[in-house]
Amino acid sequence: MRAARQGELDAVCLRRSPLDVLAQQVVAACASDEWDEDELFALCRRAGPYAELPRADFDAVVDMLADGIATSRGRSGALLHRDAVNRRLRGRRGARLAALTSGGAIPDNANYDVLLEPEGTLIGTLDEDFAIESMAGDIILLGNSSWRIRRVESGRVRVEDAAGAPPTIPFWLGEGPARSRELSAAVAALRGEIAGGHARGEDPAPGLQIGCALERRGAELLRDYVLAGAAVLGAVPSQTRIIAERFFDDAGGMQLVIHAPFGGRINRAWGMALRKRFCRSFDFELQAAATDDGIVLSLGPQHSFPLETVFSMLRADDVEELLVQAALQAPMFETRWRWNATRSLTLLRSRGGKRVPPALQRMRAQDLIAAVFPAQTACQDNHGGGTIEVPDHPLVRETVGDCLVEAMDAAGLREVLQAIADGRIETQARELPEPSVFAHEILNANPYAFLDDAPLEERRTRAVTVRRGLPAAVAERIGGLDPEAVAAVLAESQMEARDPDELHELLLDVGALPEPVGRGRGFSDLFDQLIAARRAARLLGGDAPLWVAAERRSMAATVWPRRRFAPDLAEPPARRAPAWSDAGTALVEIVRGHLPFLGPTTAPRIAALLGAPAADVEGALAQIELAGGVLRGRFVGELGDGVQWCERRVLARINRRMLDGLRREIEPVAAADFLRFLFGWQNVRPGAQLHGQAGLARVIAQLQGFEAAAGAWERAILPARLVGYDSAWLDTLCLSGGVAWGRLAARPAGGTPSRAAPIALVRRSDLGWLLAAQAEGGEAALSAGARDVLAHLSTAGASFLDEIVTRTRRLRSEVEDALGELVSAGRVTGDGFSGLRALISATQTTGGARARWHARWVRRTGGTVGAGRWSLLRAEGCEDETRHEALARQYVKRYGVVFRDLLAREAHAPAWRDLVRVYRRLEMSGELRGGRLVAGFVGEQFAAPEAVDALRATRRQERRGETVRVSACDPLNLVGIVTPGARVPAAMANTVVYRDGVPVSVPDFAPAAPAARGEASASPLA
Fold this sequence. Notes:
By secondary structure, this protein is of the alpha+beta class. The protein is about 45% helix and about 15% strand. The protein is built from 41 helices and 37 strands.
């Protein structure tokens, strides 16, 4: 959209002189008339795509159509008679029918027709692979409807309406055109501008909304995605900067991702060429995939090389030869060969008035290629594995050209490689503990992105654990290792020997063990027993003696020929040839044996340990690297700036420990343990309650925004969290202006307030983001008295009850009723909570009983119905983003751990998609921790760091049958939400009893909590 608005469109590239289509047109022309070859050639040259058609190519096509191709079923594709003497062409018998029934330039994709039973109506088509993998009874999604498969036939799938049932087959195959060069350049430029604007302190989101026609959330998501990737990689990949990243997968292998936003065709060519180069270098076929933005290579344990060398593995001058050889063995060649053979009418789409089944088409295409190009299908054992020579056949040349030009962009790849060699494209390499967000797409690439024929279930990329992004703590040490993880893995990897036999096995593994190391591990007595049994000896003559097993005498003597053994010992005859042949290969085996116990190290350190020249150790490490046993890099800062080495499996363990460290700490807890944690987090557990007015302020700060029945607050919710709760504490907080109460969402009309009316307690300073937005006006549904009171409060501001009575000229009872209606509608609030208590009771009494109740209320509480002032419940509004972030933080404060299901009782919670964006940002900044925190719930979960510690502590605590009783109106009524079973209605008459976090009974609420002190039994909320 952005590029189109700037007038940048994709260039239209037509196929130049396609020989398969030329063959079809020649047959069609000669089937109706006899032609002179020169005249027909001149006619073909008039068409734009064939304006530069060489005569040799035209003659080759004519010869192919005249002679056909000899196959096991006879001559195929012979559709012309050629008079070589008079240079005349005319169609053979059947040429006209072949041109009419098998013509067309659109290739067959072997789709199956989907027929609706019992009508037999054609409702669509399915990919052949999809249809073959399906079975009767499977439910598929076609269009916007689901269908149940009744039967799969040859070329047909018969279905019935599944009545909206969810599909049981999730996969779908399909391929769209790769991104063009122009669009790829526009995408890369946009990413660069986002990163550049952020570096200058600007917010790119508004510009993205305008330039890319995105809504606000989409623009912010795009901005956050690009900036998250740039934070990990250190830069944004572009067409002038290519970044390679490498990381371990869960199987111990490694994934190499090259971020190159050049489009799918160039990247496919690059990936194919790299696969072929790796095949020739390591004699191993890699799994690979390519998308519009990058390439992924799944490296095996035998692949080890400096990451930056991947950019120099290919050269522009010989890459086309690699691509040709790679294409000949790739699935794309067979597919495009079949397309070209069909378009050229060498293979007919219809025969005998019927369509040729796709399976027969493929088999005949294979027979055809075996006749024309036998080396392509030849047994590799007989072929010898060398370069395959491409025959000079028009269809073969056309197919190779299609692979290099349509499926891939060989010319574009040559330009990229030349630019890298010239320095016009910058290259960067990153060793990461886990993939960047830019790598997520290609790691989960669709099957059509694969460059090899491995099925989806066998992809090595599926062994990569993909998170949303690196935690901030990990992103800060890109390419480095956590010292604690290194120390822990080294401690686990130290040499162990419990008896002489185990020490002997250790000596066989390491080849030669320095005596200080053996003594430090406490192996001296065991080694003396091996000497006594003549199974080992010391190698003397260096800075430190070496312990050598008898079986390794010749190896040690080859590496250190001037040293002597004490005592001298004979080497037992070997059952097989040794792995070493000279001093260099023997040192390789000794260094290889020590690497698992050293962790990250350097060549000089190994040389000092073994008493060998550092240059020889460097050479040994290089040989081990070629075999994939060791990786080089800069892992630990304490080792300096030189090249560091680490054994592959040890490095994989260190990386895994780095990633799993936090995850082990936040191992998911059971739902019962989570509820036990919540009882402590919200101070409901016996012994965890708070005290006094300060404790009440903390409780309100945690529970603010939660609407509960007005009568439940002082009857159950607050007394459950505060020892000796006194209603005067709440009145004091309200009258001081620190706390407010009211209904957060305004309604068009109110009713008579009652103890069940939903009321929230909030800090007055937070009213702005806690109050739900309300539309202007909406007073028409209110009573006349309520409108008068509302108008007075709107103009005069906060007023005492007597002031409202005087100014509105209404009876006191009418004002009380109006205030009750406005409270129920979420329009007004009062200074003190006592006013709400009295108001509810006053509106629930009538006649003389009402007057008697007022008198009794004044005598017992010393207050009046109108205690304190009444005011409008409103505050300055705030933007949605600000409100979402504030609510997100409030839910973390309330529950400690937040996930989607937990917020089921939060009446005013925003959509989870809005909250999760905030939580992800807070996780990336280190304020929250993400992971699987509570077992049994899907989706993302987040927690405050202190909550994670409390969760771990709760899991370790023994269950002692602790019982907790809460009101059904309490936020901790999570039955049916966190625990199984039906939900308990949030009614004051209901209560929930938990034993060790498990709900054991939900009887009718029995008033177990005494009335709050100072409120007496006269309180209508009790």
